[in-house]
Design brief:
mainly beta; 44% strand
Length: 383
Amino acid sequence: VGLLASLCLTTTVRGALVPNPSAELIYFTEDGTEAGTPLLPGFSNHSIWSGLGVASNGSVYIAVSNHQQPGGNAALYRYDPATDQMATLGDIKAISSAVGNWMPNESQHKVHTFLLEHADGQLYFASDDYDPSPFLRGAHLYRIDPVTEMVEDYSQTTPFLMQQDLTVISNTGQNAERSGIFIEYYGIKGIGLNPLAPDLLYAMTYPDGHLIKHRLSDGSMQVVGQSQRVSYAFYVSNTGDVYYSDVDGTSQTLYKYDESTDSTFVIASGLPVALNGEIGAIAPQADGRYVYFLLAGTKQVYRLDTQLDQFTFFADPGGANYWRLYNMHLSPDEKSLYFVSNNNNHSTIRRIDVATQTSQRGAGRRRAAGNPQSLLRRHGSLG
């Protein structure tokens, strides 16, 4: 897996400058070329499942899964946009093995969570594994220090762990197979946090979608909700409340877990569903008042007013979208929402004007060559 670089060039159309992106491939090799020496020799870079994150210093962190069973593993890379250089931080098997926290026959074949920076400056992520792996030990929780670039198997040292039956026990005094993990048996498909709620981290299990609240200060763990569709994209508010969805047949419901009252209630029900598409992406305003939710299957955008807890239809991104959408970005000035459509041969960048709630085509982007060794890097402004 390498880096697909999209260089935002410009052309003049009727006297105006129009973005005209082009692309190049930068590989996960020492010199960034396809023929270069791999940063992790012998590691099979297979796929990326949400495993991206950006630290406040601008570094981009990438978790690449080899997705092979048995023997799953995930590699960690850091890309520095300032120097255009890629480096490796190792792989999770080696990181856990170095502290005696990887068991024989263990497989953690995916990192399916985003890599999220919390108030402590650390980037948190979790591992995911499930059948047909020969030994379902359970998920690890890791964190990266962007200053030292050290990766810690955080779940090894937490005071508690959650068992398969969702009861919480001490993380010490257990046999080796049971200690050192975040939750027994299950994988973690999504995590959520908000630096303005610095003591809280939420995780959603796979395959049953249990939503776990974890306090960093004391290691406590508690199941606070469930999403049968495992809607791993969920929003943690500035006060630590969680908004997440569940899909039942042709209907979708948005729930709120109120952290201060330890209670859950329905925000909206009867939301449309297509292709079993849960929430695909979430884009909050900086002050947290309005939060935009993209429904992956219907490709519709809804807006949540967190002060009133009102969830209303906002806009349709438009374009030829043949499958689910999992990408959305709110511009820094909060005036535009951006998407990349997923019509493979004619993907386009689309823009929704927040003030008018109307969609228009932005810049076209031809589909990059299908190469498992590539990622996307974008230069320049689209707005």
